[in-house]
Amino acid sequence: QVQLVESGGGLVQAGGFLRLSCTASRGISKIFSMAWYRQAPGKQRELVATITGGTTTNYADSVKGRFTISRDNVKPVVYLQMNSLKPEDTAVYYCNSPPVGTPYPWGQGTQVTVSS
Questions:
Q1: Residue from 116, 109, 115 nearest 37 by CA
Q2: What is the pLDDT of residues 30-77, one digit of tens each?
Q3: H helices within the chain, ranges in order?
Q4: Which residues of 22-32 are buried (b: 16+ CB within 10 A; e: fewer)?
Q5: Is residue 23 helix, strand or coil?
Q6: How far is it, in rounded angstroms, from Cα 109 to Cα 39?
Q7: Separation of first and last alpha carbons in the chain
């Protein structure tokens, strides 16, 4: 089973930035498509961004222009660069495969808190 590990979260002021990282026990370079999700308190988990292969990316409208998903197949790791953070970005962020088929077991996630 693939084990996913997210890191890089923290507390940041509105307008700030963070970079999240996702690694996998199997080696994320072998996983063709990856995604970042987030879950705010009392809300359902939502898809934030996806990356297919090395270059095809898609974003939720709420983060478009502020977040960038990328991957480094050498390290290997999948990143989520988050700029111009807003309080509404506060959530636990998770990585996993895109919402097609059965997801891998969910990791612990990484908490992102944006203060106003």
A1: 109
A2: 778 999 999 999 999 999 999 998 789 999 999 999 999 999 888 889
A3: none
A4: bbbeeebbebe
A5: strand
A6: 9
A7: 39
